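ok so for the tutorial part 2 we go from a plain amino acid sequence to predicted structure tokens. step 1 is just haveing the sequence, like this:
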Amino acid sequence: MDWNASEISLYVDDILLNSIDVNEALYPKGVYPQYPFLQAHYLVINLAIGGSQGGDPSNTEFPTTYEIDYVRVYQ
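step 2 — the prediction. this is what the tokens look like for a chain of 75 residues:
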């Protein structure tokens, strides 16, 4: 993810998947903050299991291992 004052771009293996202008990303009128990507944020690393994107986990053998080698954050 490359996030600067004007744009957020998402990549996987250096291939651009999505890009958005932060000034065009607005919450509906009356919802605060109006510009959600111009606020302070923090990072959450999560393993979501199941759902429509990952498929049916019922044939998965648990427990299994979830390992993160590293996370890089640049400012």
